[in-house]
Write a structure and sequence with these properties.
The chain has 145 residues and is mainly beta. The protein is 0% helix and 28% strand. The chain is built from no helices and 10 strands. Strands 1, 2, 5, 6 and 8 form a 5-stranded mixed β-sheet that branches. The protein is elongated, with a radius of gyration of 15 Å.
């Protein structure tokens, strides 16, 4: 399925952590490992597309990170060290898109009830500089590896 998260209006050079989105292994029998893939954020009103990047030093570049964790991660760079997304699909592990705790990670997720769900959080860092102030939409792809 698909889920939409709206950060609302954010100023430039601002970071914000989302509410969690519940991801469920409902395969019934397969242990799943997820991949995450970010995307450039297109303007909804004819403005410039924001490019997804590891940092926000250039005009119209933003950071989008994802992390599997039971509790909401802190809104600090240290808490999101290896969680920045790119336009390539990257496999989850306990430390990549994870908080270091295997049982909370997006890898080796059991199909057994009681251990088949994970909380996925996102952190956005808006660009330092923007060409225009139109709204942006980006699509994140979560897939089973």
């Amino acid at each position: 399925g698909s889920t939409v998260y709206n950060y609302g209006a954010l100023a430039v050079n601002t970071s914000s952590v989302s509410s969690s989105i519940l991801v469920t292994n409902d395969s019934g029998a397969l242990v799943e490992t997820y991949t995450l893939q970010g995307a450039n954020a297109a303007s909804t009103a004819g403005g410039t597309t924001w490019n997804i990047a590891a940092s926000t030093g250039v005009i119209d570049e933003y950071v989008l990170a994802g992390q599997f964790s039971t509790a909401q991660p802190a809104n600090s760079d240290a808490a999101w060290g290896s969680d920045a997304m790119t336009t390539s699909a990257v496999a989850c592990s306990s430390t990549v898109f994870g908080n270091g705790v295997g049982g909370e990670a997006g890898s080796s997720v059991s199909p057994v009830s009681g251990s088949h769900t994970r909380n996925l959080w996102f952190r956005i860092i808006t660009p330092l500089y923007v060409s225009d102030v139109t709204q942006r939409n980006a699509t994140l792809t979560l897939a089973v590896q």
